[in-house]
Amino acid sequence: MKIRLIRRREMWAITWEGWVIAIAGLIITMVLILTNIHPFLAVNAPIKADILVVEGWLPDYAVESAIAEFNKGGYRKLVT
User: Fold this and answer.
1) Domain boundaries, the chain
2) N or C: which terminus of the chain has fewer CB atoms within 10 Å of its end residue's CB?
3) Is the pLDDT of residue 8 over 90?
4) pLDDT tens digit string along 21-34?
5) DSSP 3-state assignment of 3?
6) Distance between CA 65 and CA 18 in Å, rounded?
7) Backbone dihedral angles phi then psi of residue 78, each to the nearest 5 degrees
């Protein structure tokens, strides 16, 4: 009985051109995501309501902006 611990196989591997294309594609994708994510995440589309909802972890300058919006918008309650 013969025990074989290692076996020779043919293997597919990415060439250096493939790595260049893959990395370039990744860089292009990341640049597009980073340059276009702000408008998606920073949507400010207020609707007419009695309650203003604000994130609770905002820095002081943003809280001041929320207070100004609360006073300007005629809201009755502020929820954080």
Assistant:
1) 12-43, 45-80
2) N
3) no
4) 999 999 999 999 99
5) coil
6) 50
7) -120, 120
* Residue that wins the pLDDT comparison between 8 and 15: 15
Kindly report the backbone phi and psi dihedral angles of residue 27, in degrees, each rounded to the nearest multiple of 5, phi listed first.
-65, -45
Amino acid at 14: I
At 46 the pLDDT is: 73
Cα distances (Å, whole numbers) of residue 10 to 7, 13, 80: 10, 10, 61
CA distance 30 to 14: 21
Radius of gyration of the chain (CA): 28
- In the block, tokens 């998606």 appear at 40
Q: Which residue has the higher pLDDT, 69 or 30?
A: 30
40: tokens are 């998606």
What are the CA-CA distances from residue 57 to residues 27, 29, 39, 52, 62 (Å)?
Answer: 32, 30, 21, 15, 10
